[in-house]
Amino acid sequence: MAAELDEQVEAFRTRTLDAGPFTFVAMDALILKVRIVCST
């Protein structure tokens, strides 16, 4: 199983990038933790 996976990884790493448009996903995140203290 690992040998088969190695073959797929090698094919991916050595592929040409001239083949055409490639789909990609860009993600970004912003997390704010706010603590509100009210003294009444």
Automatic annotation (TrEMBL):
UniProt key word Membrane: no
Pfam families: Transposase_mut (PF00872)
Classification via InterPro entries: Transposase_mutator (IPR001207)
One GO MF term attached to the UniProt entry: DNA binding
Signal sequence, start to end: none
Biological process per Gene Ontology, one example term: DNA transposition
Keywords, alphabetical: DNA recombination, DNA-binding, Transposition
The keyword DNA-binding is assigned to this record: yes
Role noted for this protein: Required for the transposition of the insertion element.
Family: Belongs to the transposase mutator family.
Protein name listed in UniProt: Transposase, Mutator family
